[in-house]
Amino acid sequence: MHSHYIQLLLPLYVAVNLICGTVLHFATLCSASEPPTTKELAVYFVICVLFGVPLLLAAVAWQLFKLILIIIERQLSWFSEEPLQLPKPELHSRWHSKHFGGK
User: Fold this and answer.
1) What is the spatial distance between Cα 60 and Cα 9, in angstroms, rounded to a whole number?
2) Rounded distance, CA 89 to CA 86, Å?
3) Is 30 within 8 Å of 36 (Cβ atoms)?
4) Burial of 56 (0-12, 13-18, 19+ CB in 10 A)
5) CA 43 – CA 32 distance, rounded (Å)
6) CB-based contacts of 29: which residues, under 8 Å, 6+ apart?
7) Quick one: average pLDDT of 53-68?
């Protein structure tokens, strides 16, 4: 059971760590005596915004998709617990002939 939760939360963990780690490292760099160069700013922007944010959004979307699939599966299993009772063919034929005058 625990491995199931680890599989669900691993993409979120990676994305959040990527974003937070980049932001914290950037904050540390900004507090240094020299301001960061434009190249360093571009690297942090690429790591955080172009990789971290889409990864976070994809992880959240994937979890929502899995949740929707679980809900659909439970709904379908709820319907399958009570098998559909179809009318027996001979009863239907008698009803049809009684009400419509023939087969």
Assistant:
1) 10
2) 9
3) yes
4) middle
5) 17
6) 36, 40, 44
7) 82
CB contact at 8 A, 12 and 60: yes
Q: Tell me, what DSSP letter sits at residue 84?
A: -
**Residue closest to 66 by CA, chosen among 10, 24, 15:** 10
Alpha-carbon span 9 to 7, nearest angstrom: 6
CA atoms of 58 and 15, how far apart (whole Å) = 9
pTM: 0.48
**pLDDT given for residue 61 in this prediction:** 85
Determine contact, residues 56/21, Cβ cutoff 8 Å. Answer: no
Query: Using alpha carbons only, what angle is made at residue 31 by residues 25 and 36, rounded to the nearest 5 degrees?
Result: 70
pLDDT in tens, 70-90: 888 887 776 665 555 555 555
Structure tokens at 25: 């490292």
Q: Which residue has the tokens 């379908």?
A: 76
Residues listed for the chain: 103
